[in-house]
Design brief:
heterodimer, A: 173 residues, alpha/beta, two-stranded antiparallel sheet, 4 helices, 7 strands, B: 93 residues, mainly alpha, two-stranded parallel ribbon, 48% helix
Chain lengths: 173, 93
């Protein structure tokens, strides 16, 4: 159904010395098998949620991701997650992420989590509905992802089931 | 952002963009670009028939590479990068 006419350079914006940390590493041990769940609804009937790894949080009601601890423990990243009400705008959010320049996300959060655009697509009938809440994590994590496997991911999955979301767009920052 | 890595990590459906880090859906303020990326992601989510489907987004970042490369990086190196720089410096000393 899809033909890839253009192959993007995955490492174009990565510092050259970092490339060996990512390229050719293969799957994590024990995660070699394909991961697949069929998408069983028509898009125009489906409820969609978004997840960003940009470290977005609600400025007035949530704690920022813990970048203070990361300063003293450089190999640790905050594994917690935040639920963000759909429609949150630049005045509502903060961004806690030490590995990227967050100025553009702060100015226009839609480049990381396009929740207002998704709501518009719902109003146009492109999708059935946008989730009431979307999700944010902070993308820099410890190598083995133990907290993510045991806590973060199961909690987000439970929240998605509570919302009766049919699909999730994962948006790495 | 790095679709080759997503493939290696067994992501089931992938949309590749050649954008600077922190700009997953495109340029700040460019609603047309953001919509094109999100609509492609939705079509791949709903329309991919097999594991590992990857569709790359055909748009070159409209900022010169050197400028865009500098712009996405934080003003201060992240703690792990600072640690690696210091380790490299110590090994040369």
């Amino acid at each position: 159904m899809f033909r890839n006419l253009v192959i993007v350079d995955s490492y174009r914006f990565l510092p050259r010395s970092f490339r060996p940390n990512y390229e050719g590493r293969g799957p994590f041990r024990g995660e070699e098998e394909p991961v697949w769940a069929p998408f069983e609804k028509r898009l125009e009937e489906a409820k969609i949620a978004l997840l960003t790894s940009a470290g977005v949080f609600m400025r007035d009601s949530q704690q920022p991701f813990d970048v203070e601890r990361e300063q003293s423990h450089p190999e640790w990243g905050d594994p917690s997650w935040r639920a963000l009400p759909a429609g949150a705008g630049s005045g509502d959010i903060g961004v806690a992420h030490l590995h990227i320049n967050t100025a553009d996300i702060q100015a226009d959060p839609e480049i990381a989590l396009p929740s207002r655009l998704l709501a518009r697509l719902a109003s146009e009938g492109v999708i059935g509905a946008a989730a009431e809440s979307h999700f944010a994590v902070m993308g820099y994590q410890e190598r083995h992802l133990n907290d993510w496997r045991e806590k973060t991911a199961p909690e987000i999955v439970a929240a998605l089931r509570d919302e009766q979301a049919d699909g999730l767009i994962l948006a790495p920052a | 952002m790095m679709p080759a890595v997503a493939e290696e990590r067994r992501a089931p459906r992938i949309v590749g963009v050649e954008f600077p880090f922190g700009h997953t859906f495109g340029m700040a303020g460019d609603k047309v670009m953001q919509r094109r990326v999100l609509e492609l992601a939705l079509r791949v989510l709903a329309g991919a028939a097999t594991f590992g489907t990857r569709v790359d987004f055909d748009l070159e970042w409209p900022v010169p590479l050197r400028e865009a490369y500098r712009a996405w990086q934080p003003a201060e190196p992240s703690p792990i990068v600072r640690k690696l720089i210091e380790a490299r410096r110590d090994s040369k000393a």
